[in-house]
From TrEMBL:
This is 6-phosphogluconolactonase. InterPro entries: 6-phosphogluconolactonase_DevB, 6PGL, Glc/Gal-6P_isomerase, NagB/RpiA_transferase-like. GO terms for biological process: carbohydrate metabolic process; pentose-phosphate shunt. The keyword Iron does not apply. It catalyses: 6-phospho-D-glucono-1,5-lactone + H2O = 6-phospho-D-gluconate + H(+). Residues 16-239 form the Glucosamine/galactosamine-6-phosphate isomerase domain. It comes from Rhodocollybia butyracea. Hydrolysis of 6-phosphogluconolactone to 6-phosphogluconate. Its EC number is 3.1.1.31.
Length: 258
């Protein structure tokens, strides 16, 4: 167990969303290289919402080694994979259908279990165990990279303000039946998983995120779900934000440079 307190977040802010998107792609490619050099694979968890669109800098980029990516979802809505509400559907439309990633490298929920949330989340946890526990033998998986978004209420993945799941300490994957944001049924990675990652990156763009970004970063004592993301040492939390989102921030930020 680490005796170091979590490192403070590193905040990269950019004049425009376009510059943010291309810098994010450079950051991801660097993380990919470090991971492949060390272990021959790159384990990533992706979110839905506005995040997949911000990954467009990876499309057509020859530096991305798609066959080495092992992709999971940070959260998923319990709907068929062809439903527009599905995070997998969204990520496929925005990214995976446009790049040469082997389909078996993307771990989706088991649609045969849509009617049983407990079995569905257990099955997804087993997929993680297959990927991580056998190879890394850790109490919790250590993702190379988890990419998160933040909702206007400060939620992230499917961890919502005031919900009992914020206190989950054991499970890797949990389910929720009463999401305040539709659809109500979802599964999500828990904090023990998110906070064991080597790198966690939040991406926030646009003026609509300015108030909540300020609350999450300048007032972590309020304990909003996004403020509780604090990867354990040596893990590191990063924020990639554009100028409209960063407009009200007090904490200091800089641009990401390779
Ligand atoms: O419901 C969800 O919302 C969050 C935030 O979405 P955004 O559109 O405000 O970025 C998203 O990260 C999560 O994956 C999704 O299920």
């Amino acid at each position: 167990m680490s005796h170091h307190p979590p490192n403070p977040p590193i905040i990269h802010s950019f004049a425009t969303t376009e510059v943010m998107v291309s810098s994010l792609a450079s950051f991801i490619i660097k993380a990919q290289k470090d991971s492949i050099d060390k272990k021959g694979r790159f384990t990533v968890a992706l979110s839905g919402g506005s995040l997949p669109k911000q990954l467009s800098g990876l499309i057509g980029n020859p530096a991305v080694k798609w066959d080495k990516w092992q992709v999971f979802y940070a959260d998923e809505r319990v709907v068929p994979l062809t439903d527009p509400d599905s995070n997998h559907f969204l990520c496929s439309n925005e990214l995976f259908n446009k790049v040469p990633i082997p389909k078996e490298n993307i771990r989706t929920i088991d649609i045969a279990l849509l009617d049983d949330l407990e079995e569905l989340s257990d099955a997804y946890e087993k997929e993680l165990i297959k990927e991580f526990a056998q190879k890394d033998s850790a109490r919790f998986p250590v993702f190379d990279l988890i990419l998160l978004g933040m909702g206007p209420d400060g939620h992230t993945a499917s961890l919502f303000p005031g919900h009992e799941l914020l206190a989950e300490e054991d499970r890797w994957v949990a389910y929720i039946e009463d999401s305040p944001k539709p659809p109500s049924k979802r599964i999500t990675l828990t904090y023990p998983v998110i906070n064991h990652a080597a790198r966690v990156v939040f991406v926030a763009a646009g003026a609509a995120k300015a108030d909540i970004l300020c609350t999450v970063l300048d007032h972590p004592e309020q304990g909003l779900p996004a403020s509780r993301v604090k990867p354990a040492h040596p893990g590191q939390l990063f924020w990639f934000v554009d100028q409209p989102a960063a407009a009200k921030l007090q904490v200091s930020s800089d641009e990401f440079k390779l």
